[in-house]
Design goal:
Layout (H helix, E strand, L loop, with lengths): L3 E5 L3 H13 L3 E5 L2 H11 L3 E4 L2 H9 L12 E4 L6 H9 L4 E3 L5 H15 L6 E4 L2 E4 L4 E4 L2 E3 L3 H12 L5 E2 H9 L9 H14 L8 E3 L3 E3 L5
Parallel strand pairs: 1-2, 1-3, 3-4, 4-5
Antiparallel strand pairs: 6-7, 7-8, 8-9, 10-12, 11-12
Length: 226
Amino acid sequence: MSAALIVAEPETSSRGYLERQLAGDGFEVIGASAPSEALALAERVRPDLVLASELDLCCRLREGEPGRSWDRNVPVILLGSVEADVVDRVRAFERGADDYVGRPFSYEELRARIHAVLRRSTRHTEDAVGAGEISIDLPTRCVRVGGSRLQLPAKEYELLVKLAEQPTRVFRKEELLREVWGFRAMGRTRTLDSHASRLRRKIAAVTDTPYVLNEWGVGYRLMLPA
């Protein structure tokens, strides 16, 4: 079964180009010219992924709206503007984007990134993963720590899932930035450290057990070996 994509692009020729190319590669594609139209489609169609040209759309998808019922965890790839810089890229990830593609971009790269995001969103065949007091129900994306439920933004959730796959292993920063954020080069970014710090504080609020441990100069692990 082919993946369903919403292409939220206000520029008619760009939207038409993406619709044609993606449909030619076997995707079910629905175009939207405005965020309001994209949100209505997200609620009705339940897409597998959204290509968004505006950060506001990504934020609204993640935050939800009263009386609306789309999937707040739907994967989102943000198509940046020509004038965007590294600050815009980092801000997109902080607001919940799963990947970021700057303009001008090659269609081949965009297609590869779509496949990569879709693989990450469906990479687990089991229904749950966890370690210590942490349990994660993957189909519902429900996170509990010692019975208390945690509400996590998309990237904090994905970081926790990644660490929980091998909870005592130290994941290198470069690996986490690549696997969770889609960064091809580490560069000078505090994105991972900021997300890890927020995730650590949220878990610490409901348990005395330390989780999300920083191995200085290397990366992060979820917990210490027994």
